[in-house]
Design goal:
Elements lengths: L1 H25 L6 H17 L8 H13 L5 H17 L9 H11 L5 H18 L6 H15 L5 H17 L1 H4 L5 H7 L6 H13 L4 H17 L2 H33 L5 H15 L1
Helix pairs in contact: 1-2, 2-4, 3-5, 4-6, 6-8, 7-8, 7-10, 8-11, 11-13, 12-13, 13-14
């Protein structure tokens, strides 16, 4: 353990000098795309070993990142590597370290969502998912609205790449969990788009399962999802049934909590049953164990 800790400490001590040289390479006027790609791949590896170690370099790092993403002739492989770096960066750094750099970066990321290459689009959705988690709770804003409509558009289109569709669904889940005020006013367009799919429903089932556990949803949504998942159970194969049954259990658990919470609130305020709060806490704990 002492040897391992000393190795991490040694690497951490080298980060400032390493980043000084790497940022000089990334910011040079003429750099081969392959060199840039290896540079960002190094950053991904560094963050995998030392999460949160790039706080001091954020302004310069984001300038280089924006420059690559905004370059119209940048190869898709380079863009995918840069997006992978950004996704990991947002997952490993606190919001106060990069908030000041977002106004310049977000427009470039929104443009990346309109790219033709599926891996670039999927990578950009992942970046926004990581960003939403880092900024939680997110209040309604222009970029969250635009990302929402981009995701819904991809879910509605019949020719959307499978990876892009899956990432768009995950983004919808992140919006409900991290920015519920953004999606509550959209009349369920995202669920209509997902539930219309007749093939590859596994990813949508996982989205519903996650939202049922991590977000606050009303009984109308729960009822609609129960009906949808029940229909999937009739059609899916043995592998698909496992996730569908787990999702159905999560939905029923959420419904139980809604019912008990509503009943307890009524009885608590009326003074008829002061033990309801204890019951509610016990039920929540038991449902936590069940999941």
């Amino acid at each position: 353990m002492d040897v391992e800790e000393s190795s991490y400490a040694l690497l951490r001590g080298q980060v400032p000098s390493l980043m000084k040289r790497l940022l000089k390479q990334l910011g040079a006027s003429k750099v081969a795309p392959t060199t840039l790609q290896e540079g960002f791949h190094l950053l991904v590896t560094l963050l995998s070993v030392l999460p949160g170690c790039l706080t001091a370099q954020v302004p310069q790092l984001f300038v280089s990142t924006q420059a690559v993403l905004a370059e119209p002739t940048a190869p898709s492989a380079l863009l995918v590597t840069v997006l992978s770096f950004l996704s990991l960066f947002f997952r490993t750094h606190s919001a106060n370290t990069f908030n000041a750099s977002l106004p310049a970066l977000i427009p470039v990321l929104l443009t990346s969502l309109t790219e033709k290459h599926p891996r670039v689009i999927a990578g950009t959705f992942r970046v926004f998912s990581s960003l939403l988690t880092a900024l939680k709770p997110v209040k309604p804003n222009d970029w969250a609205d635009k990302v929402y409509y981009e995701a819904v558009g991809r879910l509605k289109a019949n020719d959307t790449d499978a990876e892009v569709r899956d990432c768009a669904g995950e983004l919808i889940a992140d919006l409900w969990i991290c920015a519920p005020d953004v999606v509550k006013t959209k009349n369920g367009q995202e669920w209509q788009a997902m539930f219309k799919q007749t093939a590859r429903t596994e990813a949508s089932v996982k989205v519903v399962k996650r939202v049922a556990v991590e977000a606050e949803m009303d009984t109308q949504w729960i009822n609609g999802c129960v009906e949808w998942v029940s229909n999937i159970l009739k059609k899916s194969d043995r592998t698909g049934k496992v996730d569908a049954f787990v999702t159905l259990n999560n939905l029923i658990t959420k419904y139980e909590l809604h019912f008990i919470s509503s009943r307890c609130k009524t009885e608590l305020f009326s003074g008829t049953n002061p033990e309801c709060l204890q019951t509610l806490h016990r039920t929540s704990f038991l449902n936590y164990l069940r999941t």
